[in-house]
């Protein structure tokens, strides 16, 4: 069977490591030419509460992994906190690979803090990453997608964007994820509203998030000890599923990486697309507010 994305181009933000890298690899394995972007080509720094720390992963590594698997990727460094860089990114990607069929808004920033202790700068930066950046990049990509008659936008959501389980768990009392979760809830609503605005232009807009959590270099310090995480391949496969059908057939979903493949009997492949992984049922303790089909 021919790869499902042959001839298509994709832009994946925050793809030097973690979820973004995995998504870029999976799309490339299906034939897409992928533009990968992060703040710099080399190893970048994570900044939380004014403290900098080097985090493993780079754009050059992502490009190498994709090319070694037989795919094509182009690295375009861009600091999405810089307005000029942000506003130019889509056009730079289009100039580099000839178009944009798929936009995956993955880049993010998480600095958990209780509301009464959070600095305004942290609040503002969280809002920028999870609402302003997807807005700006989607706004820039839509005219290109309209012109070519189709497009797919995928925003990375989160179960923290759903209502907490009642009675409240200890995690919700102490984790400090309220502002992060509020912005992810905004991402979900942005996804559903934008889907309605562009469905008649054959542009699909969907959101995909982990059903539990994924142990990435950037998230490691935020995941409690002993918390059961999930392999990133299930999320990457769910993102791929949101990039393969016309908008009239699949748009406006807020899907989760274990729930969606399980409910739809969707085969999940390794990131190189060569090996099918075992079916993985969502755990019984997952947030009950998840809709299995993502509708």
What does it look like?
With 295 residues, this protein is of the alpha/beta class. The protein has one domain: 3-Layer(aba) Sandwich (Rossmann fold). Strands 5-2-1-6-7-8-9 form a seven-stranded parallel sheet, with helices on both faces. The longest helix has 29 residues. The model has no long low-confidence stretch (mean pLDDT 93). Belongs to the short-chain dehydrogenases/reductases (SDR) family. It catalyses: a (3R)-hydroxyacyl-[ACP] + NADP(+) = a 3-oxoacyl-[ACP] + NADPH + H(+). It is found in: Secreted, Cell wall. This is 3-oxoacyl-[acyl-carrier-protein] reductase MabA.
List the helices and strands and how they pair.
Layout: E1 9-13, H1 18-29, E2 33-37, E3 44-48, E4 51-55, H2 59-68, E5 72-75, H3 83-97, E6 102-105, H4 120-148, E7 151-156, H5 170-174, H6 178-198, E8 203-209, H7 232-241, E9 254-256, H8 259-264
Parallel strand pairs: 1-2, 1-6, 2-5, 6-7, 7-8, 8-9
Antiparallel strand pairs: 3-4
Helix pairs in contact: 1-7, 3-4, 4-6
Subcellular location: Secreted, Cell wall
Pfam families: adh_short
Keywords: Cell wall, Secreted
């Amino acid at each position: 069977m021919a790869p499902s994305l042959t001839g298509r181009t994709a832009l994946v933000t925050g793809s030097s490591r973690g979820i973004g890298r995995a998504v870029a690899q999976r799309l490339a394995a299906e034939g897409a030419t992928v533009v990968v972007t992060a703040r710099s080509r080399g190893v970048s720094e994570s900044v939380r509460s004014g403290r900098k720390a080097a985090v493993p992963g780079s754009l050059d590594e992502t490009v190498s992994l994709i090319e070694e698997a037989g795919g094509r990727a182009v690295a375009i460094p861009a600091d999405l906190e810089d307005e000029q860089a942000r506003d130019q990114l889509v056009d730079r990607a289009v100039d580099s690979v000839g178009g944009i069929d798929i936009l995956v808004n993955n880049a993010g920033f998480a600095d958990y803090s209780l509301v009464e202790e959070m600095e305004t700068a942290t609040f503002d930066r969280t809002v920028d990453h999870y609402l302003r950046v997807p807005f700006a990049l989607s706004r820039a990509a839509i005219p290109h997608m309209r012109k070519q008659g189709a497009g797919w936008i995928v925003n990375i959501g989160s179960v923290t964007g759903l209502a907490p389980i009642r009675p409240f768990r200890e995690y919700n009392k102490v984790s400090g994820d309220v502002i992060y979760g509020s912005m992810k809830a905004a991402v979900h609503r942005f996804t559903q509203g934008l889907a309605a605005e562009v469905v008649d232009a054959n542009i699909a807009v969907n959101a995909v998030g982990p059903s539990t959590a994924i142990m990435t270099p950037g998230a490691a310090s935020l995941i409690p000890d002993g918390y059961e995480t999930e392999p990133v391949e299930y999320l990457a496969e769910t993102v791929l599923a949101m990039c393969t059908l016309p908008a009239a057939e699949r748009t406006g979903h807020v899907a989760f990486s274990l729930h969606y493949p399980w409910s739809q009997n969707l085969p999940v492949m390794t990131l190189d697309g060569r090996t099918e992984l075992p079916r993985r049922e969502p755990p019984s303790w997952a947030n009950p507010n998840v809709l299995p089909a993502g509708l």
